[in-house]
């Protein structure tokens, strides 16, 4: 088997558990490295760039071009020291995000979701967590934002297979945050006017630690 094929096998197509959810905590470092080393880091688009403020197109082609995009996203995420990245954050208007994120128990989750949809939770399962949230597309800014502390996302993997991903705590926040991106929402869009203004002030007063695309 060619080396490239081996890398792709390690990087993608996750197993599932007895309930049908992806097992994204096995060999996370190996899989992230396999993706990232095939990719090229790209600068991050920031708030105000039109690609961030409209719904992305569905992924319909699950070939090498998509897998190269995913590799570039993992490389870009590592450069920016993020835990999740949506395609429109590197200027590509497709519904795909990647993640390399710990949950509140310290387990590291690494994976890819195309065409994600958040599963509506019954009221009894909606416990809110109002921790701080930040975004690579709003660099250096943070604000508390209440989100459910458990989330489920359905979608497809990078080869078009159906997937279900679930997470708690910080990882649940990541799944919700990245799905929002692909439908044209930044976390600051969910803040009060006052908190949004403060987040934009934080961004204006500080320099990002990674390359960004300047808005013309």
TrEMBL record:
It is an enzyme of class 3 (hydrolase). Its EC number is 3.5.1.88. It catalyses: N-terminal N-formyl-L-methionyl-[peptide] + H2O = N-terminal L-methionyl-[peptide] + formate. InterPro entries: Peptide_deformylase, Peptide_deformylase_sf. It comes from the Bacteria. One of its GO terms (molecular function) is peptide deformylase activity. Fe cation binds at residues 135, 177, 181. Belongs to the polypeptide deformylase family. This is Peptide deformylase. It comes from Streptomyces pyxinicus. The gene is def.
